[in-house]
C-alpha cells in the first residue's frame, strides 16, 4: 500500500469508528506503520470524524518527526506496542463506552479481561490484559505495556479505554470493534447465568491463533 493510500485508509477507518459511536469528541488515537519503517499518527486533540490525511503526524524509522501536526499525547503507549510486538502494523486506542463500563466493574482475572462469550474475540484478540488506571498521557502507560513483553495484542486501560495492535490498520480496527462488542455482550448478560465457552474451547481457539496474545 502506498503511503498516500495508507493515510486515506487510516482516516476513513477512524471516521467509520466515530460515525458508529465507538469513540466521541476528540477522544481516541490511531497510528500505522509505513513501508519504510516510519509511523503515521493522529494529531493531538483531533476528532476521529475529521482527520485530515495531509495533517497526520509523520515519523521516520528513527523516531524523528518529519511532518504533520503534533502527535497524540499517547505516543509512549503506541511506541510500546511497536517496540514489543513483532509484526505490529497499527495501533488503535478508543474510549468506547461498553468496554470502559466493563472495566469499572470487578474483574476475576486481570490477565483475561474479556469473558469468553463467543469465539470471535478470542480469535482476534487472544487474552486481553486489564491494566490499572493511568492519567491520560502518562508515559507510565507505555511502561506498563512494555512490561508485558509483547505477550498481549490488546490491553484495557481501566476507566479509560481499550488499546489494540494489529498487523494492519484494518486488522487493528476490526479487533477493537470485536473487543467493544464483547464488552457490550458482557454487560447485557451481567448478573445472569450466562453460558460461555469452556476452557477446552478457549484453549483450542488460542492454539489455532498461535498463542494467548
Written overview of the protein:
This protein has a single domain, classed as 3-Layer(aba) Sandwich (L-fuculose-1-phosphate Aldolase), CATH 3.40.225.10. Helices cover 37% and strands 15% of the residues. The protein has helices at residues 3-19, 75-84, 97-103, 119-125, 140-146, 169-188, 199-209, and strands at residues 29-33, 39-41, 57-59, 65-67, 90-93, 129-131, 154-157, 161-166. Helix 2 (75-84) runs parallel beside helix 5. Belongs to the aldolase class II family. AraD/FucA subfamily. It comes from Paracoccus solventivorans.
List the helices and strands and how they pair.
Layout: H1 3-19, E1 29-33, E2 39-41, E3 57-59, E4 65-67, H2 75-84, E5 90-93, H3 97-103, H4 119-125, E6 129-131, H5 140-146, E7 154-157, E8 161-166, H6 169-188, H7 199-209
Parallel strand pairs: 6-7
Antiparallel strand pairs: 1-2, 1-5, 2-3, 3-4, 5-8, 7-8
Helix pairs in contact: 1-6, 2-5, 3-6, 4-6, 4-7
What are the main properties of this structure?
213 residues; alpha+beta; L-fuculose-1-phosphate Aldolase; 8-stranded mixed sheet; 7 helices; 8 strands; 37% helix; globular
CATH topology assignment: L-fuculose-1-phosphate Aldolase
Shape: globular
Main β-sheet, in a few words?
A: 8 strands, mixed
For the residues shown, what is the average pLDDT? 95
Task: Look at the structure and give the CATH class.
Answer: Alpha Beta
| Class per helix and strand makeup | alpha+beta
Q: Give the spatial strand order of the biggest sheet.
A: 4-3-2-1-5-8-7-6
Supply the number of structural domains.
1
Amino acid at each position: 500500500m502506498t503511503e498516500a493510500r495508507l493515510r486515506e485508509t487510516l482516516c476513513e477507518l477512524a471516521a467509520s469508528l466515530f460515525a458508529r459511536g465507538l469513540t466521541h469528541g476528540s477522544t481516541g488515537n490511531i497510528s500505522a506503520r509505513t513501508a519504510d519503517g516510519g509511523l503515521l499518527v493522529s494529531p493531538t486533540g483531533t476528532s476521529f470524524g475529521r482527520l485530515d490525511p495531509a495533517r497526520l503526524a509523520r515519523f521516520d524509522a528513527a523516531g524523528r518527526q518529519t511532518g504533520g501536526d503534533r502527535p497524540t499525547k499517547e505516543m509512549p503507549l503506541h511506541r510500546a506496542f511497536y517496540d514489543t510486538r513483532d509484526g505490529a502494523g497499527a495501533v488503535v486506542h478508543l474510549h468506547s463506552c461498553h468496554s470502559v463500563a466493563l472495566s469499572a466493574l470487578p474483574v476475576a482475572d486481570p490477565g483475561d479481561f474479556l469473558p469468553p462469550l463467543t469465539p470471535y474475540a478470542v480469535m482476534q484478540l487472544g487474552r486481553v490484559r486489564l491494566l490499572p488506571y493511568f492519567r491520560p498521557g502518562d508515559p507510565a502507560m507505555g511502561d506498563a505495556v512494555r512490561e508485558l513483553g509483547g505477550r498481549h495484542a490488546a490491553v484495557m486501560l481501566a476507566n479509560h479505554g481499550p488499546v489494540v495492535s494489529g498487523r494492519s490498520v484494518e486488522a487493528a480496527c476490526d479487533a477493537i470493534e470485536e473487543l467493544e462488542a464483547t464488552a457490550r455482550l458482557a454487560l447485557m448478560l451481567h448478573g445472569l447465568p450466562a453460558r460461555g465457552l469452556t476452557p477446552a474451547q478457549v484453549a483450542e481457539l488460542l492454539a489455532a491463533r498461535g498463542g494467548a496474545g
